[in-house]
Specification:
It contains three helices and four strands, in the order E-H-E-E-H-H-E. The protein is of the alpha+beta class and 98 residues long. The protein has one domain (3-77): Alpha-Beta Plaits (2-Layer Sandwich), CATH 3.30.70.100. Strand 2 and strand 3 (45-52) form a beta hairpin.
Length: 98
């Protein structure tokens, strides 16, 4: 069953290009990854939204996702509210709307 994950980030001022460059170098050949997009949601705010073949494929890619995060972790600002540097969520598709 298809799955999606999303991760919210807030990037420190002046570090956005470094953040974007780190993402452009990752994820291209991860098994089970169908699509991934990085969207800008506000001033210094970004989210990654990715589609996967299955929750198993997503889970198997977590080490690569963490390694990618480690490559730009120092670019991130705390999201506040006890979240830390990232706000990840994932799950299977339960209703395809279009």
């Amino acid at each position: 069953m298809t799955a999606f994950n999303t991760v919210r980030f807030r990037v420190k001022p002046g570090r956005e290009q470094e953040f974007l460059d780190a993402h452009s170098k990752s994820a291209a050949d991860w098994p089970g990854l169908r699509h991934a997009n990085l969207i800008k949601t506000g001033d210094g705010a970004y989210s990654v939204i990715a589609e996967w073949d299955s929750m198993d494929a997503l889970a198997a890619a977590r080490p690569q996702m963490i390694a990618t995060l480690d490559s730009f972790r120092d670019c991130l600002a705390d999201l506040g509210g006890g979240l830390g540097l990232t706000d990840p969520v994932a799950g299977p598709v339960v209703l395809a709307l279009k």
